[in-house]
Amino acid sequence: MYQYRLALMLGAAGLAGAFSGLLAYAINHMDGLGGLEGWSWIFILEGVITILVALIATFVMVDYPSTAKFLTAEERSFVIETRERDEAQDEEHPMSQQIWAAFTDWQVWALAMVQASITTPLYGITYFLPTIINNFGYSTSFSQLLTIPPYAIATVTILVFAHFSDKIKLRSPFIFAGQLIALLGYIINISNAPSHIKYFGTYLCVIGTYAVAPGSISWLANNLRGKYKRAVGMALQISVSNMGGAAACNIFRSQDSPRYLLGHGLEIMFISIGLIAILLIVRTYKRMNAQLDREELLEKEKQQGQNDGWKEEGGASSTCSRATRFRYTL
C-alpha cells in the first residue's frame, strides 16, 4: 500500500490542477469584485482552503501505526513488523553510517535520474499547459477550462497505477508504461498534427507523468534498508529531481510558439533517458537478487548441516535470516 498512500498525496496535485483551471476561469470574472484585482482572489481563496485543510489535519493525522484506525489489524501488524526490522538494521548500522551510505549508494542517484525524467516533463506540462492549449487557437478563458479534463483523468490514473503496482509488488513496469504514454504525448505535440490531435496529446503528457510520479519514489524506498538511509536517500532523490523544475520553467519560450520544438524536444530527451535508466536498473537488480538467492541457499545448506543443539543456540541468527530474505523490488 506504500505507493497508493503516496499516490493519494501526490494525486492531490492532479486534483489541484483540475480545480486551478476552473478557479482561473472563475477568477477571470471576479476582477474588481470587492475592490480587488483577480490575482488577489487567487491568494485569498487558495489560502483559506489551505488553512482549513491544515486545521482538519491536526485532528485526523496519527503518530503511530498502533493508533491508526484506518489500518486493519493485519496491516498494523505488518507495519509494526517492518518498523522492527528497520530498527534491527539501525542497531547494526548507526545513523551516521546510514547517512553516508545514502550519499554513496548508486540506487539513490540512479533513481534520482529516473525521477528527474518524470518531474521535468511534469513541471513543464503543468506550467505551460494553458499556454500550449491557448496556441491551438482557443481563448484564454476557454483554455483554462480545457486544462481540467487531463488533470481529472490523471488523478484517477495515478491511483489505478499505484493500486496495481502495490498489488503485484512491481514498480518498473508501471513507471516504464507511464513514461511511454507521456513520450507519445510529447511526440504528438512536437509534430504538425491538427490542434484537436495535439490536445489529445496533452492528455497523454499529463496522464503519463502524473501516473508515475510516486512510482520511482516508492521504488527507492522499497530498496533502501535502514530508516535513516531511506529518509536521506528519498530526500536526495526528490531534491535532485526537482531541479528539473528549474529547467522546465525556461524551455517553453514564447518565440518557439506554437510548436515549442525546444521545450517538447527536451522533454522527449528527458523521458528517453529515464526509459533507458529503468531498463539498466532492473537488469542490475535482477543480478543482485540472484546473488541474494545464492547466499540464502548457502545459508540454508549451512543450517541443515548443524545439529539441533547448535540450532537452539543460534537464535541470534534470525536477524541474518531476515536480511537474507530481503529482495530488491523490480
TrEMBL record:
<feature type="transmembrane region" description="Helical">
    <location>
        <begin position="260"/>
        <end position="282"/>
    </location>
</feature>
<keyword id="KW-1133">Transmembrane helix</keyword>
<feature type="transmembrane region" description="Helical">
    <location>
        <begin position="39"/>
        <end position="62"/>
    </location>
</feature>
<dbReference type="Pfam" id="PF07690">
    <property type="entry name" value="MFS_1"/>
</dbReference>
<keyword id="KW-0812">Transmembrane</keyword>
<feature type="transmembrane region" description="Helical">
    <location>
        <begin position="7"/>
        <end position="27"/>
    </location>
</feature>
<feature type="transmembrane region" description="Helical">
    <location>
        <begin position="141"/>
        <end position="162"/>
    </location>
</feature>
<feature type="transmembrane region" description="Helical">
    <location>
        <begin position="199"/>
        <end position="220"/>
    </location>
</feature>
<dbReference type="InterPro" id="IPR036259">
    <property type="entry name" value="MFS_trans_sf"/>
</dbReference>
<protein>
    <recommendedName>
        <fullName>MFS general substrate transporter</fullName>
    </recommendedName>
</protein>
<keyword id="KW-0813">Transport</keyword>
<dbReference type="InterPro" id="IPR011701">
    <property type="entry name" value="MFS"/>
</dbReference>
<dbReference type="GO" id="GO:0022857">
    <property type="term" value="F:transmembrane transporter activity"/>
</dbReference>
<feature type="transmembrane region" description="Helical">
    <location>
        <begin position="174"/>
        <end position="193"/>
    </location>
</feature>
<dbReference type="GO" id="GO:0016020">
    <property type="term" value="C:membrane"/>
</dbReference>
<keyword id="KW-0472">Membrane</keyword>
<feature type="transmembrane region" description="Helical">
    <location>
        <begin position="108"/>
        <end position="129"/>
    </location>
</feature>
